[in-house]
Amino acid sequence: MKKIFVLIPVLLLFSCFPYVYYDQNEVVLKDIDIDKTIEIGKMELQDGGFTEVLTFWAIRDQIFYTEQAKKINDIYLENINKITSEFGIWHFAWAVSDIYRNGSEDIKKEIQPAYNDAVKRPITLKKFNKIANEHINGKKIYMGNIHELGKYYAKTHLIVSGNKEYIQSIDDYKKIKEKDKKWLNKIKL
Hints:
Elements: H1 2-16, E1 19-21, H2 34-47, H3 54-58, H4 66-79, H5 86-102, H6 105-118, H7 129-137, E2 143-146, H8 148-157, H9 170-186
Helix pairs in contact: 2-4, 4-5, 4-6, 5-6, 5-7
């Protein structure tokens, strides 16, 4: 019986992470609107909750301009100490780490202060310290949506012009957000 409990998590690990990549070319989205997606990320941070940092996590492997990296740097530094969930801290620090490690020297210069903080975050975590450390400081850069929920989140929060699998505007995001709120309000917990 003990062997089954050990085997189940191992099997889940292999089947639950079909969207992990180590080559940035595999994850870059053509025509992504980073600036508008950052605006969605800021709205999510204002709303708070479990998913508050995931928009930044979902864009972490895209190609950034220096101004965008600077915005992410500032947003991260203004908000990281307000995030209370280990999951949120891990994913926000992971986002900054990937942007830094995939970036040019100019990008690295702009996001350096946030990166200096992000690399220290895993030691502050109790539950997720090992996996967070691997994602933030490991030799490999773990890119992609990782699993189905990550893929769904990206498609409903990233603006990718002309790609109908993703939202096309901030209005699309707001419509989905409102629809989700109505659905969640119907559920009696």
